[in-house]
Design a protein that fits this description.
alpha/beta, Leucine-rich repeat, LRR (right-handed beta-alpha superhelix), 13-stranded parallel sheet
Length: 450
Amino acid sequence: MSKLNEDILFLIFEEFQDDSKSLFSCLMVNRLWCETVVPVLWRNPWSYSSINYSNRSCLFSIIIYYLFDDIKELQGIKSFLSMRPLLFDYLSFCRSINVCTINEIICTGTSLSNNRLIIQQKFYGLLMRKCPELKYFDMRSISNSFPEDKTRLETICELNCDTSIDSIYFDELSRFCQHIQRFIIVNNRNPLRGIIKLIEVQKNLKYFEWENDRSGEGPYELVFRALEKKANNLNYLKLFIGCVKDFEYTLLQKILPKFHKLKTLVIDVIGNDKSRFPIVPHHLENLSIQRNSLNVLSSIIENSGGHLKKIAFRPYVLCKSDDNFNNFIRKVYENCPSIEYLTISFSPLEENFTEFEKLLKICKNLKSLLLDINQPTCGKNWKYGGKLLRLLIKSAPTNLKEIRIHNGYSFSFNSLKKFLGKWKDRPALSILIFDLAEYLYGGVLYKSNQ
């Protein structure tokens, strides 16, 4: 590996561009590796989860090095520099701006708000001049420290923002930024006309997220109508809005089937009539729903077109006395034989075990299964846990790699020992107990191996 040429190394490092720990370790191999990996690391240096930016004074040192002549008269700035030249022109590799992270870094070197404002203004201006092609812009928490010249933002392909930002920023961005492909919005104030305009002017919007915080409100008619104009391009849509007005929900029901290229839908939008849900596009492959009844979900699956590979949800209404569980499982294996990732709200009744076994036998591509167990009694349910393990040994598809259990069964030591003994000649299987919401929405799982 150490003898690979620079071009091959660069291609390899690009595959690990989101794995900061691996990239940082590559810095220490030799000079060639270091010189090759630095441009990859500094393409988006503000995005690494392994870095505590508020404590990394070395990053502040790099900023000060670039700005030394402009801010050397400022008082109250910590000095970390030996004034030796930097090993690399780091900012020349940068393709991103993250306002919140950069502000955290600047705060490590000075506690004076006026100093921070001056450094922010100087640094953003420098980034605009140094970055040959800006691609990623996270402007959440932006203030008036951002430079006036926004023409260099026309190459942005990913934008993160929130609706508390002054509308003038969105009005100006809409003049230059018209090629955003990935657009993420946090609504912490009423939607602004400026941000709606920015959605409307995009020419190739493929990925869109709108998520409310507790103070976010409508009107959402403007959001839905702006998205309707992007129906021919969008392949990922996430709407976490909560409750909407009846006419807005009716509008969503009308426009959602128009998204013919949509592959992933993650949605929490509820109208007063919870028995109705928009028809999903027939080419949809991934569906995650925050909450709804099993009857509604069964209807969605039945009319989905048969291409779904992932179904995840949090049940909103569950009724033990009817056949919701049974019917839901049946709709899955009848309409989604290619399913790979599946959430099942499961009540341990005999007929449900029968339908569950049919699902395991028919859905041969199943890789990950989440069981949200509706327990019939309190306490330890070794009887049902043992029955589940026996069923898995008998009928689980060979592709099955993990089972995640919420409100899970208890497994007796003997039944678990027999299960592991019989499974040893098959591909590895993980049985995890965790918080259901983290499976649905991408959080870090708390794993408890059984």
